[in-house]
Amino acid sequence: MALNGNESPILSPACLSNEDELIIEKRIGKGQFSEVFRARILASGQRIALKKVRIIELADSKARADCLKEISLLQRLSHPNVVRYMGSWVANLELFIALELADAGDLSAMIKHFRDKEKMIPEPSIWKFFVQISAGVNHLHEKRIMHRDIKPANILVTAEGKVKLGDFGLGRYFSAQTMSAHSLLGTPFYMSPERLREESYNFASDVWSLGCILYEMAALVSPFYSPTINLQNLCERIQRAMYPPIESEVFSDELHNLCYCCLNISPDDRPTTADVLNFATEMHHRTLPNNETPEV
């Protein structure tokens, strides 16, 4: 399937333009109004991820605005741990967004692999991944963007083991004058208490989600998961920060403590994303084997 004709580029000519023909290879994801395909640029042979949004089905004007908001957010981001934006256009009432392809699955698949094998992720590997996740989130926050839906399924992994933070459909730009938001969106297992209470929240809400991610990489399960849990009980556990300690004794006190600090009920008492990144970087360096050097 080639994309050509009746296409109008809507962003910078420095990005992938309507003149590039793409061959659709396979569908790799699906959402309520969108699908994601692996595609290949004919001119270069490079493989990309192509997100197709059915604009005609977005009858709600806010949904359409959110869709365009995602593009404006992607334009502002340039970081090795954030999925790279490569261009977009509209054709036949469908919006196409070309993105960097992370071709080795996501963090949720990696966690499931270890859980199924009944093996723990080694702590050096946890820090190797977590420092990249923290770096990506910190870049968003430096650009005044909150992700608002940080979860293992939105943390993509390349074949080289690089982490790429993706899916900014729920992201929101914050001007210097706007430090909080009011909306209940995202994934309940990784939502902060203030969001569940539908209170005003800010960047500290993403830090809570980072704490959930770090915990899950060590415990191989969400801190608030239970086989018999229902939504009401889940919300109660999150709002009271009730979660079992990580059972394994093989993880450092530093890992336990960072989880505890990020999963603080009070947003003001959580570390900043920069604090989390600095601490994760130190732990990544400290846990490297003697014959390895940290990646730049």
UniProtKB/TrEMBL annotation:
Coiled-coil stretches: none
Keyword Transport assigned: no
Main localization category: cytoplasm
Residues where ATP binds: K51
Species name: Cloeon dipterum
Listed GO MF terms: ATP binding; protein serine/threonine kinase activity
One Pfam family per UniProt: Pkinase
Location of the Protein kinase domain: 22-288
Family membership: Belongs to the protein kinase superfamily. NEK Ser/Thr protein kinase family. NIMA subfamily.
One GO term of the biological process aspect: response to stress
Protein name: NEK6-subfamily protein kinase
UniProt cross-references to InterPro entries, sorted A to Z: Kinase-like_dom_sf, Prot_kinase_dom, Protein_kinase_ATP_BS, Ser-Thr/Tyr_kinase_cat_dom, Ser/Thr_kinase_AS
SMART domains attached to this UniProt entry: S_TKc (SM00220)
Annotated keywords: ATP-binding, Cytoplasm, Cytoskeleton, Kinase, Nucleotide-binding, Serine/threonine-protein kinase, Transferase
Subcellular location: Cytoplasm, Cytoskeleton, Microtubule organizing center, Centrosome; Cytoplasm, Cytoskeleton, Spindle pole
UniProt KW Coiled coil keyword: no
Any GO CC annotation of this UniProt entry: spindle pole
Record-listed E.C. numbers: 2.7.11.34
